[in-house]
Amino acid sequence: LFLCTYFSEVAYATAEKNGFDPHEDKSNKTATHSSSGSVLMRTKELFQREPILGALCLEVLVCQCLSSLLQFIFLWKVKESIVDDQKRAGWTGNCYAIVNGVSGLLQVIVIPMTIKHVDPRRLWVFMPVVILVGALFMIREQSCSLHLAAPTFMAMKTMEFSIRGVANEMVYASLDYDSRFLGKEIIGLFANRFGKSLMAVGLSLFAGYSSARMEIQLAWGSNVLGLFWFLASYRLVDQIEASKSRVKED
Q1: 67 falls within a domain
Q2: How many domains is the chain partitioned into structurally?
Q3: Within-domain flag for 147
Q4: Is residue 45 part of a domain?
Q5: Which of 47, 78, 158, 220 has the fewest beta carbons under 10 Å from its own?
């Protein structure tokens, strides 16, 4: 502990000697954020200054609602289809292992090799289209059977763990430090959590429905949210293009 304290003081002294004082930088950032007013006012000002963050916030909100719905359908159908607890736990674990494995391959190999040749804006439209295809099959079958719910849910989680992370960072990278810092904070705390909470409240309303009727309602719900996600993603793409146009004009 004493060694760590000693070396940290040496590091601060060296930094200050070369013209960089971490204490001063931290106090400046704290003063900047504290003088910005309330969170709501800062959020409003941020979204007015950077419309792309408002579009991203809406996209994340709808995406999290849909992800929570698909997870509910998946777990419900697994419990209904596989009665044995041990087999159900093993089958669910295998599904998550596949999701993690595919996500890892996409992050480490596929995305770095293809991102230079693919317009990132297409990624935003591609993701909801994939989920809409699975949701449309649910409508066609008039049910949320496990052989439809599992691939759709696994595709959603795979994209969340891989493609979405890259696409989000590419949006943030085009912003200044304050917009990037505050935008991540607002979207991470509000859009992600509020989307999941909102869907949890909505699903509680289905508690009194019969199993057959509930399947149809959830199938239609996944399609409606999938369509909203597509529209939110398309709006985000428009904001990305508008942001690039403003940068070129400046």
Answers
A1: yes
A2: 1
A3: yes
A4: no
A5: 220
Residue 173 lies in a domain: yes
Find the CATH number of the domain harbouring 97: 1.20.1250.20
The pTM (predicted TM-score) of the whole model is: 0.80
What is the residue-wise DSSP string for the chain?
-HHHHHHHHHHHHHHHHTT--HHHHHHHHHHHHHTT--HHHHHHHHHHH-HHHHHHHHHHHHHHHHHHHHHHHHHHHHHHH---HHHHHHHHHHHHHHHHHHHHHIIIIIHHHHTTTS-HHHHHHHHHHHHHHHHHHHHHHTS--HHHHHHHHHHHHHHHHTHHHHHHHHHHHTS-HHHHHHHHHHIIIIIHHHHHHHHHHHHHTTTTS-HHHHHHHHHHHHHHHHHHHHHHHHHHHHHHHHHHHHHHH-
Q: What is the pLDDT of residues 204-238, one digit of tens each?
A: 877 666 666 788 888 899 999 999 999 999 999 99
Mean pLDDT of the region 112-117: 85
pLDDT at residue number 161: 92
Q: Domain of 177? A: 50-249
Predicted confidence at residue 249, as pLDDT, reads 64
